Amino acid sequence: MSIRWGAVKTSQRSPMPRRKRQMNNLSPSKSLYEPRRAVHNKRIDGPFRRFKWLVMAVTLGIYYGTPWIRWDRGPYAPDQAVLVDLAHRRFYMFGIEIWPQEFYFVAGLLIMAGIGLFLVTSAVGRAWCGYSCPQTVWTDLFQHVDRFVDGDRNARMKLDAAPWTWGKVTRRVFKWAIYLVIGFWTGGAWIMYFADAPTLVHDFWRGEAAPVAYVTVAILTLTTVTLGGFMREQVCIYMCPWPRIQSAMMDEKSLTVTYKDWRGEPRGSLKKSKKEPDKFGDCIDCNLCVAVCPTGIDIREGPQIGCITCALCIDACDRTMAEVGRPRGLIDYVTLEDARREIAGEPPRPVWKALLRPRTLVYFGIWSAIGLAMLFALGTRNRIDISAAPDRNPPFMLLSDGSVRNSFTVKIRNMSTAPRRMKIELEGLPGAAMWSSTTSRDRAAREIESTIPADATEPLRLYIAAPPGTGGQSFAFNLTTLDAQTETDTAKVTFSGPGASE
Ligand code: SF4
Ligand code: SF4
């Protein structure tokens, strides 16, 4: 699958006269960079456009709405369903709570997202770019704002070319104000993932939120308006590395939006092709596929980096074909392999054969295996943890009765959303007993109990006294919860003493 790199043909936005274009090409001072000409894509309806509406509604709905979803975790944890709690170093996602030492779950999710993109790209090419990439979704939204304020393609082109009048200034100010509102809501929604949304909104409007909240909203407002409102397709064509990486993931069996030149060429107007049907192909050169393209390219010039495979040109061409009574699919999702088959006159293969093939199944297998492994790890993970560090200086002390004392800093972690009673026991170290800094040696025992608050790490100072002459040896602190949902954890440590090591 070869994709054409470099400057993008801008057939849709070509008001420049041919003579001037020729002069530009001949000019010795021709710039390496073609100045952007606005893309005024035309409204179109069809199955792919409706699918894009659906994806836009779902993705924007998730983005703007998720911080407002509540999730009851009891009195000791926040009730926001999705929350990155930087202050307490926690990540909450519905019933899942991730601590910093469990970051491998987030890494696993990122790996799954990466493999998911491999899977989608190898099956349906740049579908991510065409439907669900944030740049695409927001650009689409801004293009609908343009249409709402200035009208469809012709009206917008006319307004663009018109001199600056009060009417034009008013429209521009109104449109850019809507851009700013969208950018502001986008930045505002982002910060709500990092704090309790209702509280933050209240504090934000009263000027009591942290300065970083205002700075973040300002930056995201600016970037949303700049990237989605003004730069648009230039981000996809010149800035984003993903199209370059994607072309390496696609092969001859990947579906991609294709103009069937073997069926459409030579193109000619409907009038001409009716007069001489044998001389012309099915393309009546109506230019509708170019007019609806959100990146302003002409798909009839072959696969190119500017094509995000949104398939709006398929909707457009299918409409034209229906109007002139020719079969649909002059522009369609086709694999390179099937294109060759069609050219050779063989019947096309069913779409599922392009989707279900060894490569996509391998990606799906890896993706599912990681997902299942993560689900298993999540379902079986411990919500308690114990670690212990001995004092190094001095490593041991001899008490007046000759027994050997070691001191330890033991950290007990309760990762659940309620306080838990726990028991710490000594394993090994015969004849030894322990006590904490809040009690005395009189109450030394082989086990002690403690209540650890919800969602907290509690440090304990523990002292262990072993019989006289005890030498260096390994032993363990065993931690067990004293509730119905019994969980255990162990910290292995070394006891230091003057006797021979065991
Ligand atoms: S050429 Fe067609 S599929 Fe590609 S970006 Fe334009 S409208 Fe979308
Ligand atoms: S919409 Fe179809 S018929 Fe019209 S110019 Fe494009 S390919 Fe040709």
Automatic annotation (TrEMBL):
InterPro entries in the cross-refs: 4Fe4S_Fe-S-bd (IPR017896), 4Fe4S_Fe_S_CS (IPR017900), Cyt_c_oxidase_cbb3_FixG (IPR014116), Electron_Trans/Redox (IPR051684), FixG_C (IPR032879), Ig-like_fold (IPR013783)
Domain 4Fe-4S ferredoxin-type, residue spans: 273-302
An example molecular function term from Gene Ontology annotations: metal ion binding
Transmembrane segments: 51-69, 103-124, 176-193, 213-231, 361-379
Top-level taxon in the UniProt lineage: Bacteria
UniProt KW keywords: 4Fe-4S, Electron transport, Iron, Iron-sulfur, Membrane, Metal-binding, Transmembrane, Transmembrane helix, Transport
Protein name, UniProt field: Cytochrome c oxidase accessory protein CcoG
